[in-house]
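Here we describe the complex-level prediction in full. Unlike the single-chain runs in Section 2.1, the two entities below were treated as one system.
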Amino acid sequence: MSEMPHAPAGASDAEASEGRVYTVSGEDWDEIIAAANEAGDFESGERIVVNMGPQHPSTHGVLRLVLTLEGETVAEVRPAIGYLHTGIEKNMEYRTWTQGVTFCTRADYLMPIFNETAYCLAVERLLGIEDRVPERAQIIRVLLMELNRISSHLGGIAPMGLELGATTIYTQGARLRERSLDVLELITGLRMNHAFIRPGGVAQDLPPGALEAIRVFDESGRRLLDQMHTLIDANPIFIGRNKGIAYLDLQGCMAIGVTGPMLRATGLPWDLRKSQPYCGYETYDFDVPVRDTCDAYGRYLIRMDEIEESLKIMQQCSDRLAARGSSDSDPVMIQDAKIGWPAQLSLGPDGLGPSPQHIAHIMGQSMEALIHHFKLITEGFRVPAGQAYAAIESPRGELAAHVVSDGGTRPYRVHLRDPSFTHLQSVAAMCEGGFLADLIPAIASIDPVMGGVDR
Amino acid sequence: MSGPEQPPEAGPDETAGNLPARLGEERLNAPVVRRGLFGIQDTPDTSGYGLLRVHKALPLDSPRPYGSYFDEVADALGVPDAIERVVVDRGEITFHVRRERLPEVAVKLRDDPALRFELCSGVSGVHYPEDTGRELHAVYHMLSITHNRRVRLEVTAPDADPHVPSLVGVYPTCNWHERETWDFFGIIFDGHPALTRIEMPDDWKGHPQRKDYPLGGIPVEYRGAKIPAPDERRHYQ
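The structure predicted for the assembly as a whole is:
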């Protein structure tokens, strides 16, 4: 390994003394302008370098933007990331394949279900069990993914309003988002970091009352969505701030690797759910919303339309689940004693744990089941050596897991190809030459989540 | 009548050569990748698997036909001298490309009308310390929206000379992905416009996702029992 000379943190003395340094601590803008005027910085046409972030309310997370400004025009913008790097990929190499779900769900924390699904699909491909995952599990996966797509899109649209100074957009969006999180919490037990999708199926069946909660959510969701459309769509300020802003055409998207709503805002109906279906998406009836404006407003409209499409898919999921009825003979985990997690959790007098039937089975009836239970829980299952790349259509674009196995009980390497990471590269292409104020809707229209960017 | 010529008196070595081959015997000379069943060296292994030796597997090389659309892609790609081997596994195709020919192959993949891999999903590094002389792998995933196809490219570089040509000129999206792979694996992408660290601080030492870089962590005490840090726990192979 090459030894790097240890550089001091922060700017060196030479860097700090080159040019004039102003320390901005908030509410002192007048003093800084006065000082800059006095020094003649504005008359000489000097460029000002501003560090926006990493703790800035409108950068959509711990993102730092190094801006070179000429007056109000952005001459150069360089996003600096890494403030939320937690080593998720490295950590996964030291846990079993099933435990890996607990880590990757934390990457992009607005779309945990998608992180889990991408990883599990890759593991299932390595195991060669893609066709043996029970249909009920696939329906629950689709249901949860679409529910998560709604909460994620609202988590993008609502703060976008807040960053533009429109609190009502935020409260409207957050109100609907809360309801979607309530349903997620009812089904998985948590609002985020679910670790619910597992290799071979899902962790649990739907609890009683889940389908009713989805029906109620569907009704209130459509009503709140209508209100948001009425509030935002034709709002002259919102249109003024977003229409024609953050322009990125198809060619730019292809070069920078941009997918998802940003790509569909250029008029290309590319959606992996349609083109390379997984989890049975080919059997659902839904449309791919497309706009051809290439701007922030088009992306907003696509996200709103996708929420409606997601509601449509969720409706179909809950119809199918209702038609399947009781789940006793309808498993949610692969029926393979060497892979499928053995116990379904149930609530006992001493808290949540393996179901009493399962305990009775392994302790009283089947020695083999006990051995499988012990082996799966202590060391986990083995995955044949090889590599797989599973890509899914996340709310932000192509989310993929590149998973490498050496044949052991732990992943040899997991790489999450996160759309936010890729898309943040487009900030310079979209914002350089524009106004500083337009940078805010541009970033918001990418909808980057730093947890996914930094992993 | 002269029968078939009798072989001369066979020496002990040649007698051994006449014995039926044992399954997998040809791999006995391959380097040992691991011993035992558990990743434990310091304490005695009472599992009975302590003498187990696992030899390195031969590199895979899939024969034609590859099936699916893979044959079409391979035919259109051509350049057989740039591709070391092709692996078709679990419905995915991997072209192992000689590293010096990577940009040429990428340009062909992007521009050839029969290929049209417009979108590169970026680079993923993998570190194989046991794969002597080819320790560092850079894996690229390409997507063709025109034909709705995917392929994977894999290039290798030794630890001693960790250089791979940059693909930023062909696929600008590789910019940050290559910086990330440099940051985490120490692969130097020649021709990258600004190969600096991206996730770790600028003054960080080492490349954290290499296998020789420890995970770190401290033991945790829980109800009197001390649980070691994750990378020091017993694990199963």
